[in-house]
Amino acid sequence: MPSTNFNISVVGAGRVGSAMSSLLFEKGSTVLSIVDVNKKAARKLANSVNCKQVSTDVSDIHPKTQIIFITIPDDQIANTAQKISSNKNLNFKKLTVIHTSGVHTSDILSPLAKKGASVLSFHPIQTFPANKSIRELQKNLEGVYFGIEGNKKIHHISQQLVKTFRGKMVYISKKDKPLYHLACVFASNYIVTALNALSEATEKLKFKVGWVDVFTPLINTSLKNVFASSPLAALTGPIERGDIKTIESHLKSLAAVAPHLITYYISMGIETSRLARQKRTITNEHFLELINLFKSFLKNK
Q1: Which pLDDT score is estimated for 5?
Q2: 7-174 falls under which CATH superfamily?
Q3: Cβ within 8 Å of residue 68, ≥6 positions away
Q4: Are 17 and 10 in contact (CB under 8 A)?
Q5: How far apart are CA 39 and CA 60, in angstroms?
Q6: Per-domain residue ranges for the chain?
Q7: What is the DSSP letter of 68?
Q8: What is the pLDDT of residues 187-207, one digit of tens each?
Q9: How confident is the model at residue 1 (pLDDT cuts 50, 70, 90)?
């Protein structure tokens, strides 16, 4: 089993910070200090990783810390980095500071880099829902990919951390971080949104079983087909066949039972029409007819 013996401190005792620090603790690292504006959350995490130092202030980060993990909301990272850079008890030249933001580069930690710290963006490509226990989040963290960006001189540290998580890594350039993060959004958040639309649209069908039971085989087969070939090859359905009257009936039905989903359906329909045209299962004439249909419903919405 891979192990580490880093001395770490964690700024942010939320789901990501808790899962990562708990897993690192179990595999050999020592958690020296935990900082969070919510002291109760910090203390809860501290109890699970045998950490004695808990605070709401980054000035209390333990001076023997080798790696600081900043696992807080994106819009708080810059200010927090600035505050940590003012900590006179830290040996910055022997310190690595890591944030777990998907969208920000390591440049957001520049106040710390200027003090001599090595900085890194270390983003787990995984979701951390609130309704899961820390143990479940830990399990979901093992084996995933991590998006890495930052000082190449310390890539050995990111490699060691990824190995500890039994994971793999992809290197992201600074300029590509927003593109990388929107890919993560497509892979997770927007899939959840699509399933929520399915849930809401089927409420009035009054199935004797839940929508998950009814549609899971279709969802799983669709994903399996995409992974086995490509989205283009896997595309089926009324738009792919050019069944314009069917799409019109969908829109009328949504207008009656879930009008708030019309804009979403049309957005997805436009993109699906583009894909079908690319697949050449519909003509350009069919494509334009579909687009005009969508436009007419948007005007009437």
Answers
A1: 86
A2: NAD(P)-binding Rossmann-like Domain (3.40.50.720)
A3: 8, 9, 10, 11, 61, 84, 95, 96, 97, 98
A4: yes
A5: 13
A6: 7-174, 189-300
A7: E
A8: 999 999 999 999 999 998 989
A9: very low
